[in-house]
Amino acid sequence: MNRDSRARAAHLQLQQRESFVSDRIEQLHAWLGGLLGQADYRLAPASADASARRYWRLYLGADSRIVMDAPPPEDCTRFVRLAQRLRASGLRTPAIHAASLEQGFLLLDDLGDRTYLGALGPATANALYQDAIEALLRWQSRDAGADLPPYDAALLARELAIFRDWFLEGLLGLRLSAAEQALLDDAERLLIASALEQPRVCVHRDYHSRNLMRLDTENPGILDFQDA
User: Fold this and answer.
1) pLDDT at residue 5 tops 70
2) Is 96 strand, coil or helix?
3) Helices 153-162 and 178-196: crossing angle, nearest 10°?
4) N or C: fewer beta carbons within 10 Å in the chain?
5) What's the predicted TM-score (pTM) here?
């Protein structure tokens, strides 16, 4: 494909993307109109996601909510189920005020925009991380996680492969020799065997400072838990 062909293909993809986003926003406004009637509201981008999900902050008078836009084939079902499950264990996740699982729209509590990442410092780190650890302990002591997907050898291997694929080869541009590949294979087998010997508990899988919110009470607010 020559440069002109690549440029035309990229332009077509951009047009298709813009058309999809425009249609999606129209669907979102139609859904909100059905929920809110004639109420005057305003939407502003809140954040994006590593997947196709996007988040909007909805302003309605003095109140605000978060709208999750997860276009099919994205599935909101796990988010809804796990949000309720974590709240039942005493953790602070967004309450769900309305949902259209078929369309992929959720209306959620707004936990604000103060992430742990922005709040951490010498004066705050100990207290914030103490709250985060205690929240994990509450969840793991109250929820056996019996029907969550198993954190098994196959899943551990896929996650360990990220180091090799994304960091060593993708970011650093390294090409490992056969001996280096074998060394990593051995290390991964040892890590997987060690992990599988540990007690089984619920695992968030993305529990870090960008997904933990600093709140006035009940720290932390917990986000992005749908892959637990």
Assistant:
1) no
2) strand
3) 140
4) N
5) 0.81
Residue 120 Cα distances to 37, 123, 126, 133, 225, angstroms: 41, 8, 9, 15, 21
In sequence order, the 6+-apart residues with CB closer than 8 A to the CB of 146 are: none
CB-count exposure of residue 199 (10 Å: 0-12, 13-18, 19+): exposed
Q: What backbone phi and psi angles, to 5 degrees, belong to 148? A: -80, 155
85 vs 73: CA distance, rounded Å: 23
Contact 87, 221 (CB under 8 A): no
pLDDT digits (tens, 9 = 90+) for 53-66: 899 999 998 999 99
pLDDT at 12: 45
Angstrom distance (rounded) from CA 144 to CA 166? 33
The whole-angstrom distance between residue 106's C-alpha and the CA centroid of its chain comes to: 14
Residue among 83, 93, 95, 97 at smallest CA distance from 36? 97
For 171-227, give the DSSP string: IS-----HHHHHHHHHHHHHHHHHHHTSPP----S--STTSEE--SSSSPEE---TT
Burial of residue 211 (number of CB atoms within 10 Å: 0-12, 13-18, 19+): middle
